[in-house]
Structures are given as structure tokens and as C-alpha cells.
Amino acid sequence: MIKLSPKKWLIVGLVILILGYLSSGSAEASQSQATISFKESIAPTQVVLTLFDQRTQAPLAYALFELRNDQNTLIFSKLQTNNQGKIILKKLPYDAYTFIEIQPPFGYVSSRNTLHFTLTSKEPSLSLKMYNQKSPSSKTNPSLPQVGGHSFILYFFVGCVSLSASIFLLMIKNKNRKKRG
């Protein structure tokens, strides 16, 4: 067993908690910004959705979308626009789909939160545009990033156990000092 002083156990616990928090959000962000392709589809389709500021025409990053098919089955949740305001989907099967904006970028409101489109052999590639407008209120509450997942729970549990152990050891040490002195 590793012998550490109570202060060092406290530091170890805090480091584990911080690492758990940092690791929980970064993996999700990189996955949600990737170009997504269906391997099992032989349809040479491509859909590019670009989100713009309605007034300035600047691309908007960090908006979250869902993609549903015409039977309202969820295909993707949490598709995130990249730094160019784009979501790129390749090799989707021919079908009718709907993009649903579930969270606009901070400081914006969705002008139109759904966009319907159909991929066919005659129209396999589409370039779609959506527009958001600035929020009328400058005091919009920011959305907090989503945290959680297995790694966060594990780091949180280990950090709490480490912190509890260090506090317990400090209490025992102080109790022994009082008995001696």
C-alpha cells in the first residue's frame, strides 16, 4: 500500500476529481464535430447543413441538432456544428429526414428549428442552410456543458474516497496529538 501523508492524499483526491471533470467533456466534443459516414450504405449521398447568423451571414459553431427520418426515428442526437457552422453527413440511405435544432449557439435563438429534406437517386447531394438570430436579451443564461458518463463517475467516486480518507487520517492525527499533549 502507498503511504502518503493526509495532505498528499487530499492533493491526490483533488487531482483525480479535476482529471475526471476535464476528461468527461472533451471526448464528446471531438466526436460530435466529426464528419459522419454510413459504411453499410452504398448510396453516394452527402448532406451539408450550414448554420448562419441571420443578420451578418457569419457561420455559427456549437449548435446542437438531431436527425430523424420520416418515421420520426432518431438517427443522431447531438450533432454539433463545427467552426465553419457545418454538419456533414455522408452515405445516408435514400430517405426523407428532418434536422431539428435542439440547442442554438450561446446568445442566439433559433429562427426555424426544423428543416426537412429528402435524399433520392436524382438528388443525392444537398447543401442546406439555416439561420439563427441574436437573442433579444443580452442576459441570456448560458447552457452548461453536459458532463457525466462512466469516466466522470469513476473519477468522481475515486476522488471522493481519496478526500474522505485524507480527512479521516487528519482527524486521527489531530486526535493523537491531543492525547500526547
UniProtKB/TrEMBL annotation:
The keyword Transmembrane helix applies. The chain crosses the membrane at residues 152-172. Keywords: Membrane, Transmembrane, Transmembrane helix. The keyword Membrane applies. It comes from the Bacteria. Pfam families: SpaA (PF17802). Residues 48-134 form the SpaA-like prealbumin fold domain. InterPro entries: Ig-like_fold, SpaA_PFL_dom_1. This is SpaA-like prealbumin fold domain-containing protein.
